[in-house]
Inverse folding.
């Protein structure tokens, strides 16, 4: 949801074609990360380690939140959701990326490509909305502490989580439907490491301008809206913190949202750099998307485990309990 789009300036799909006696594409070939030929072994080791660390780190945070009754609060409810999405989001692209980096087939079926595109945008959009929800939670906690438990009640938390998932699903369904309602009958080489709209649409045998415009508008407006809501929440939080007289109170208030703020910077920082570059760079675009899809979920587990004292305590209890179980 929050990654940039890079549409080629010209493509065979920009003008309508009369389609006769064509063979329907049944699979696509993923050509991988641009300009990384000969680096497959190194990249395989790096991405494998990142993927394993991501799965283990987010799973441990999820177990810690579930097992500790002290963490059964709205803030950690949303953190648990984020950890869940951070397990699934990199799993959309990492397994296939690791397969062809290890020298195996680069082919992905037509349905597999459509599924990859859908879940990529569904989970990415859902995470983007969840960041906004978490910033609102921190806003209520710091600006309205006495009413926090009343405002952020269990019912509202469930509604926010449900709406977050539903909006992400609708967003991904629209983009996937627009992309794969077009016929694909010619070249099937995807110049990227996963199926995404900007690299799949140029392979269509019909006019893709509508899908390009809707996709760019949908993703761009949603990303800007989410970023704006986060900006508003943290502006209000910053004003509230500055009004706290004691240094200890300011430090405590800031510490409650510092981890979330760091996670947001990891997610949105590279995107801001991309949008401010003068000319599109395919390699830089790929690096940014890798940061968002694969690296950011790993960093989230590090950020929340290192900067959040409650999570650190819960993780120690989980790990110590596991150690005692093994010894027994």
């Amino acid at each position: 949801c929050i990654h940039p789009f890079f549409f080629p300036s010209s493509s065979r799909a920009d003008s309508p074609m009369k389609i006769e006696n064509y063979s329907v594409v049944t699979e696509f070939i993923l050509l991988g990360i641009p300009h990384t030929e000969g680096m497959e072994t190194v990249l395989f080791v790096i991405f494998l380690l990142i993927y394993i660390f991501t799965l283990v780190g987010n799973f441990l945070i999820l177990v810690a939140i579930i097992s500790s009754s002290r963490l059964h609060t709205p803030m950690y409810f949303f953190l648990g959701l984020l950890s869940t999405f951070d397990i699934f989001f990199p799993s959309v692209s990492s397994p296939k990326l690791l397969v062809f980096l290890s020298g195996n087939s680069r082919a992905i079926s037509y349905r597999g490509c459509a599924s990859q595109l859908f879940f990529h945008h569904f989970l990415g959009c859902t995470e983007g909305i969840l960041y906004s929800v978490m910033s609102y939670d921190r806003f209520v906690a710091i600006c309205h502490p006495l009413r926090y438990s009343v405002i952020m009640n269990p019912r509202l938390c469930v509604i926010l989580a449900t709406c977050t998932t539903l909006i992400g699903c609708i967003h991904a369904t629209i983009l996937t439907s627009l992309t794969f309602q077009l016929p694909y009958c010619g070249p099937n080489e995807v110049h990227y490491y996963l199926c995404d709209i900007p690299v799949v649409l140029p392979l269509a045998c019909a006019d893709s301008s509508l899908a390009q415009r809707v996709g760019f508008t949908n993703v761009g407006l949603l990303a800007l809206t989410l970023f704006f809501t986060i900006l508003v929440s943290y502006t209000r939080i910053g004003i509230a913190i500055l009004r706290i007289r004691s240094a200890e109170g300011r430090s405590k208030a800031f510490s409650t949202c510092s981890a979330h703020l760091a996670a947001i910077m990891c997610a949105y920082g590279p995107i801001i750099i991309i949008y401010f570059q003068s000319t599109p760079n395919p390699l830089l675009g790929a690096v940014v998307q890798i940061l968002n899809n694969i690296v950011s979920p790993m960093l989230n587990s590090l950020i929340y485990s290192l900067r959040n004292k409650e999570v650190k305590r819960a993780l120690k209890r989980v790990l110590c309990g596991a150690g005692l179980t093994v010894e027994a």
